[in-house]
Design brief:
13 strands, 2 helices, alpha+beta, 196 residues, Outer Surface Protein A, domain 3, 18% helix
């Protein structure tokens, strides 16, 4: 039996759960999320808890049992409190700014030819917000900082990963975009022997 799947999910105050057929809809102070539960998993609301059950021990049922419970728990937490991921941009002259519904990132890349672009314009998806705390990085120890927030855990994580992929941290000076608190394995640069 799935230990995680059988664990009931507590529903905090201010969050409403509605089940219509295989659709589960959660509504809370931060917004509304809905998701279609895969068959043959059953979801029920019992008092202040949500329970997830499966009819048999087939491989497909076992796989979906714990997953369904985890996704519904994430939906409840998302509409109640929301999710946020903090990112940092390291590198002299690197910056992060907001322009309407776009995040402007300057992280050292230059295009070729006449129309060289030093800035990435990343459209912010619907349902997500970006807040910039520090616009420009100063040196290699004082980064530009911004936060991605939203109610959908998967969407917040996906958008943060796509931003990080633009300029992954390099191992010599640590320049690039990284998650707050992320440790970068550093390498020692080339050492030149003295001439003689």
């Amino acid at each position: 039996m799935s230990r995680l799947g059988n664990k009931p999910i507590p529903v905090p105050g201010g969050v409403k759960i509605e089940i219509a057929g295989s659709n589960v809809t959660t509504t809370g102070p931060k917004g509304t999320l809905s998701w279609a539960v895969p068959s043959p998993i059953a979801v029920a609301v019992d008092g202040g808890e949500v329970t997830v059950s499966r009819p048999d021990d087939e491989k497909a049922s076992r796989e979906r049992h714990g997953l369904t419970r985890a996704l519904i728990a994430n939906m409840i937490e998302g509409v109640a409190q929301g999710y946020s991921i903090k990112l940092e941009v390291y590198g002299t002259g690197y910056s992060a700014k907001l322009s309407g519904k776009k995040l402007l990132l300057n992280c050292g890349y230059m295009g070729r030819g006449v129309g060289r672009v030093a800035q990435f314009e990343i459209p912010i998806p619907d349902g997500l917000q970006v807040t910039v705390e520090t616009e420009a990085a100063r040196g290699d120890n004082d980064p530009a900082k911004f936060t991605v927030t939203g109610i959908d855990k998967q969407a917040v994580g996906q958008f943060a990963a796509e931003i990080r992929k633009i300029r992954k941290p390099e191992p010599y000076k640590g320049k690039g975009i990284r998650y707050a608190g992320e440790q970068i394995r550093r390498k020692v640069g080339k050492q030149f022997a003295g001439g003689g």
